[in-house]
Amino acid sequence: MKTGLKRAYANVRAQVNIENATLALALLIALSLVWSTMQALQRNFLLQQKVDRLVQETQLLGLENDTLKYQQNYLKSAEYLELSARDKLSRGLPGEKLILLPQPPPPPASAQAKRPSSPARGNFEQWLYFFFGRRPGA
Prior knowledge:
By secondary structure, this protein is an all-alpha fold. The protein contains four helices and no strands. Residues 101-120 are annotated as: Disordered.
């Protein structure tokens, strides 16, 4: 009878070891799948960020290109040619008259000297004025 118990115990122990090994192997495979999935998600996220940045740069360059085309069209226009001729060559259309206004005279030096100058205050007096809002000694 003892021999039968020993055999049964050995069979149970052998099955438990095989089941444990199988369970450990399944757990290892599951962890490896989770790990590779997480790596793929991270790689895809980084690549999507790069794609978004490049799309944004492409849109910005397209806007700059459009702006340069509009500026080029303006520089080729008749309005710009007329304005630049008026400005650089001092020309006007027939019938227009040029009026030059005299420069205003500089203010006399005595007007600048008449300004009342505030007495110079020391650092301590400036702090007192800053904190209390009144002149020291008043």
